[in-house]
Amino acid sequence: MIPKVSILIAIYNVSEYIEKCAHSLFNQTFTDIEYIFVNDGSLDTSIEKLLNVIEQYPERKNQIKIFHHLINKGSAAAKNTAIDNSTGCYISFVDSDDYIEPEMIEVLYMKAKAENADIVVSDFFIESKKKSIIVCDYISEIKENNFINMIKHEQTSSSMCNKLVKSTLYKRDDCRVTETLNYCEDWHIMTRLFFYANKIVKINQAYYHYIQYNKNSITKTINHMHFENVVQFWELLDTFLKEHNEFEKYKQVIEISKIQSKVRLMIDTHSSKLRKEFANMFHDEETNCISDFKRGEKLMLLLVRYKYFGLAQLFHNFLVLKHKKNLQKKVED
């Protein structure tokens, strides 16, 4: 019998977190679930710990499948392996260092069926070591606005993890994750899912806990791969929209969003060398829309454009200190 929901989990060196994640998965109030774990060449005790947790849930054993990559292929390849081997009507992704509330799958599935939705979105928690913050995702009642908001990557989260999605969308050939894209892969695939989805609905409740204190997370340190993947992400989206004769329709929002992604990288990286190497990234788009940016963003872009890389580094250091002071103030409050 076809399971109603497949939960897909890629695993790579998460021995500190996998037990809490697995318990949250197997304690779901919803019973008709298929669990697909992909061991992406883990070198630690993640799989041993997962197997120990599985032994505590004999009623779930027949619902669990574990696939192994002999070497680490990256999160994109692991997600594709999980999708290819899933059989559920709906798919939900959970990162193996995160965890979910017991009723998450039941609530999202019932909402999907009640409203005949292709995608159901919920709010989520951001978990630091000192506090938990609820982030409210945003979904419009207008289909095109949702696609635009996904491109903008501001109000609407590009995470694959706070969403339940019809498996037929994930299994489209052009909705596969590009396996050289290990940063922005969620954003890459969600733009396509939002483009094709006929109906997207929202639940105004948080069920997903996103852990921010995993030091091994790919998003923690901005390096060469992040810059290359951002360039590749926009090339792929441009090509996708041109193939559907929709590029001119979204050109303006894409230009602004490209420069926003550039300025984030320029601010977040600690490397003057990377700023120098990618200074001309999206040069034409920057010329067209630099006036649309905030003062601090504009300053970083101008410093990089005119090759004041030393000053750009000092500005970066100032922003880091300012961010730390703001976080400290929030904790004290």
Topology:
Elements: E1 5-11, H1 18-26, E2 33-40, H2 46-54, E3 64-69, H3 75-85, E4 90-93, E5 99-100, H4 104-115, E6 119-127, E7 132-135, H5 143-152, E8 163-166, H6 167-170, H7 185-196, E9 200-211, H8 224-243, H9 247-268, H10 272-277, H11 283-289, H12 295-305, H13 309-332
Parallel strand pairs: 1-2, 1-4, 2-3, 6-9
Antiparallel strand pairs: 4-8, 5-9, 6-7, 6-8
Helix pairs in contact: 1-2, 5-7, 8-9, 9-11, 9-12
- What is the H level of CATH, i.e. the homologous superfamily of the largest domain? Spore Coat Polysaccharide Biosynthesis Protein SpsA, Chain A
Helix percentage: 40-55%
**Uncertain regions spanning at least 5 consecutive residues:** none
Instruction: Give a quick account of the main beta sheet: strands, pairing sense, barrel closure.
Output: 9 strands, mixed
- Mean pLDDT value: 92
Whole-angstrom Rg? 21 Å
The topology string of helices and strands comes to EHEHEHEEHEEHEHHEHHHHHH
Number of strands: 9
What is the count of distinct domains? 2
* Class based on secondary structure composition and strand pairing: alpha/beta
What would CATH call the architecture of the largest domain? Alpha-Beta Complex
Write down the CATH topology of the largest domain.
Answer: Spore Coat Polysaccharide Biosynthesis Protein SpsA, Chain A
Distance between the ends? 53 Å
> Based on CA inertia axes, which overall geometry fits?
globular
* CATH class call of the largest domain: Alpha Beta
Question: Roughly what fraction of the amino acids lie in strands?
Answer: 15-25%
